[in-house]
Amino acid sequence: MINKEFFFKGFKSILAPDSPAIALGCCFIAIGALLKNLGFNIQESIFSTMLTYALPGSLVMAESLLVGASLLNIFLAVWFVNARLYPMTVSLFPLMMHKSQPKWKYYFSCHFIAVSAWLIMKSNYKNIKKKHRIDFWIGIGSATWTTAVIGTFIGFYSSDYLDKNIMIGLAILNPIYFLCMMVGAMKTIQIGASVILGLLLGPIFYFLSPEWSILLGGLVGGTIAYFIGELNVS
Amino acid sequence: MSVNVVLAILVTSLATFSSRFLGVISSEGIKETSKLFRWFNCLAYSTLAALIARTIIFPVGVLSDASYFSRATVVLFCLFIFFISKRNFVYPTVISAIMMALLSEHL
Fold it and tell me: For A172-199, what is each residue's pLDDT tens digit?
């Protein structure tokens, strides 16, 4: 079962001074308000955040529904935006896999992969023994996921009081927080180059293909950064 | 709940979970000290950076109503705050929301 000590240690990380709780919560307040304006009821809004738990994907779904896109189009549009979760998972889970832990924990907890939880785990995993990292991760994921659900709830019921300017203010909050976290994570040449190249190539590839821009920017930028780092080491 | 909305939510969650689940399956054969792991680490950081840049420069949703100038001003000012506050994440985050709301109202 889940080790309670490490679970709660992970859960409490959301209370740290540099925690993403405020940014995450505010963004899901905006999502809750947006979903209500689109005609979702409270159950649908909460259900959406609980099951998807990925902000860009929820935004794309909302926009797609607005223009009357088909289910296949929604699937593809969301898949393109959220395919970034694949490299994020592969760059995190090998750090947590331990032979003494049951596999269901990994299959279950991969749902918590999102930028906020991922960045918290990346900056804290070295302080936790490998055997207990998955329990710590489930704690972090549960906390960020709960924050997202509460944010959606608040956003849904406060949407009447949120004017357009406040919504725009809430919408910029998350990218700014993540941008600062990414810049703060640039401690090696490889990661520094990855971040800078991703920031440059993502928008450049947008002109070639909006759907593929994130994946292509990440793939090309990350691969160049990898070789820069390897050459630097050798 | 309307059937269309529920189906859209299910399709969205399936599209999202598939990437996460495939990531776990792939992780089973990758050692954290391997070159493949380091490559995926670069891909993850680069992809996230690409997503952030796209969210700010080519946003979806309400943020697209804010001008390029106001978005660029907020980003540069908040990065400045981030560095002068000894890399504190909270100040630039809170300031970004207030500044963006004010700029979008007055510009």
Answer: 888 898 899 889 889 899 999 999 999 9
Instruction: Inform me whether the C-beta atom of residue A86 falls under 8 Å from chain B C-beta atoms.
Output: yes
Residue ranges of domains in chain B: 1-30, 31-59, 66-107
pTM of the full predicted structure?
0.86
Helix (H) or strand (E) holding A225: helix A213-233
Please identify, among A138, A158, A181, the residue that sits at the C-terminal boundary of a domain.
A181
pLDDT one-digit tens code per residue, A130-154: 999 999 999 999 999 999 999 999 9
Are B20 and A17 within 8 A, CB to CB? no
Question: Considering CB atoms only, which of B16, B38, B41 is closest to A82?
Answer: B16
Q: Is the pLDDT of residue B3 over 80?
A: no
- Closest by CA to A76, choosing from B101, B67, B12, is B12
Do A155 and A213 sit in the same domain of this protein? no
- Do both A43 and A118 map to the same domain? yes
Q: List, as ranges, residues 40-59 from A with C-beta within 8 Å of B.
A: 40-41, 43-44, 47-48, 51-54, 56-59
Query: Which of A165, A181, A197 lies at the terminal end of a domain, its last residue?
Result: A181
How many domains is chain A partitioned into structurally?
Answer: 2
Query: CA-to-CA distance for A11 and B91, rounded, in angstroms?
Result: 23
Question: Measured between CB atoms, does A197 come within 8 Å of chain B?
Answer: yes
Considering CB atoms only, which of A91, A180, A213 is closest to B50?
A213
| Residues B93, A165: C-beta atoms closer than 8 Å | no
Q: Which domain holds residue A218?
A: 186-234
Q: Which helix (H) or strand (E) holds A223?
A: helix A213-233
